[in-house]
Every structure is written in C-alpha cells, then in structure tokens.
Amino acid sequence: MNKLIATLALALTATALVAQSGPLIQLDKQVHDYGTIAQGANGECAFTVTNTGDAPLIITNCKGSCGCTVPKCDTAPIAPGQKSTITVKYDTKRTGVINKSVTISSNAANEPEKVVRIKGMVEGQAPQGTAPVE
User: Fold this and answer.
1) DSSP of 80-97
2) What is residue 34's predicted lDDT score, i.e. its pLDDT?
3) Which residue of 23, 81, 104, 131 has the fewest CB atoms within a 10 Å radius of its CB?
4) 3-state secondary structure (DSSP) of residue 55
5) CB neighbours (10 Å) of residue 7?
6) Number of folded domains in the chain?
7) Domain CATH code at residue 97
8) CA distance 77 to 108
9) What pLDDT digit, counting tens, does each position of 51-65 carry?
10) Could you tell me the pLDDT band of residue 125, with boundaries at 50, 70 and 90?
11) What is the domain extent for residue 63?
C-alpha cells in the first residue's frame, strides 16, 4: 500500500513539473484602478508581462472589451526571464464607471488567454462659467 501511495505521489509530481514547462505568463497586476479621474484626463495605464517559463513567450493578440479600451502589445518573443509592457488607453471623454477588460492571447502554457481589467470612475466637468453647486 505504501508503494502505491509513493508511486501515485511521484506520478502527480512529475505531471505537475511537465505541465509547467514552456513559456509561462505572469503579470504585475490583474487590475488597474484609475480611482476617480477627470473627464479628458490621461487614460493610459500599463501592465508588465514577465516570462517565467523556459521557452520564448509570444503574445499574439491583445483585445479590449470595447472600442473605448485600446491595448497595445509587442508581438516580439519575450525570452525566459524577460519582460514586456502592454499599454492600455481608455477614452476618458466618456463619463461614468470604468469596468473594462483586455484579453491577452499568447503561447503561454499556464494561461494562453489571460484577462486583465481596468476600473475606476470618470467624473464630468462642470460647464465653463458656472459655479459649483454647494
């Protein structure tokens, strides 16, 4: 019985090690929170991607959940241990709650489709020449 348990444990460990080889994607954050920003403010943020695997990581596509969220990613291979930056530009002309996502497609063994989010609030500006309401 002990041999059976030892054999199963060894098999599970070997499977886990094999499953984690190849390119692996890791991001510095899962969510970027703008907090409260003014209408027309700079809506750009960045996510840092690290390849924690043992083979080149290739990001094939970055796609925003709508036209107001525009990501840019480099498709050049990211060597093991190296980093790349994905920039996301949100259109802050739109007021209200920000709750959008960006899908990162790659050859990562751990998460070939990784979803990150941006959130916050864009406050509208009072028309010029009007006093704030107290």
Assistant:
1) TT-EEEEEEEE-TTS-EE
2) 97
3) 131
4) coil
5) 10
6) 1
7) 2.60.40.10
8) 11
9) 999 999 999 999 999
10) confident
11) 23-123
